[in-house]
Design goal:
The chain has about 150 residues and is mostly helical. The chain has helices at about 40-75, 80-120, and strands at about 30-35, 125, 130-135. Helix 1 runs antiparallel to helix 2.
Length: about 150
């Protein structure tokens, strides 16, 4: 449809190359994978991620507690006998808790990473239309019989 100025309302054509463009347009295909994740696996990954965040936060709090006790005692100078015992015990407990929480946080991260790695190893390659193009060596479908039913 033409307007008064002579221009048309039609959409511009999508050409593979634009005039005055210094970048060539290439049409590529993306390789895609399909990941089969059960709800239980998703819950486990989420739980392990939450646990690692919580344990690293708790380790940071315990370490901050121990360092603040040390800094306070250093700034104070001389302390009474009861305060000295409290500070020394608090520093030790805070350091041990920080180490334990850090260890459990690292364990939960490694556990999560191994679960994600297991899921990635079972991924199936698909093409742009969603058809399966290749299978992973760790994941195989049962072979069908001559009627097309899987053989157990």
């Amino acid at each position: 449809m033409a307007t008064q100025s002579g221009a048309t309302d039609a959409a511009p054509s999508l050409s593979p190359s634009q005039p005055h463009s210094s970048l060539p347009h290439t049409h590529t295909r993306r390789s895609m994978k399909e990941y089969v994740v059960t709800e239980a696996e998703l819950d486990q990954i989420s739980l392990l991620n939450t646990l690692s965040s919580w344990f690293f936060s708790a380790a940071s709090a315990a370490a901050s507690f121990a360092v603040s006790l040390y800094a306070g005692a250093t700034i104070q100078g001389t302390l009474s006998e009861g305060a000295t015992v409290f500070v020394q015990t608090g520093e030790i407990v805070g350091g041990v808790l920080a180490a334990v929480f850090t260890g459990v946080g690292i364990w939960s991260l490694r556990k999560k990473q191994s679960k994600v790695s297991e899921i990635r190893n079972q991924a199936v390659a698909i093409d742009q239309m969603g058809a399966i193009t290749a299978r992973s060596s760790t994941f195989s479908q049962p072979t069908p019989d001559k009627e097309g039913f899987p053989i157990e």
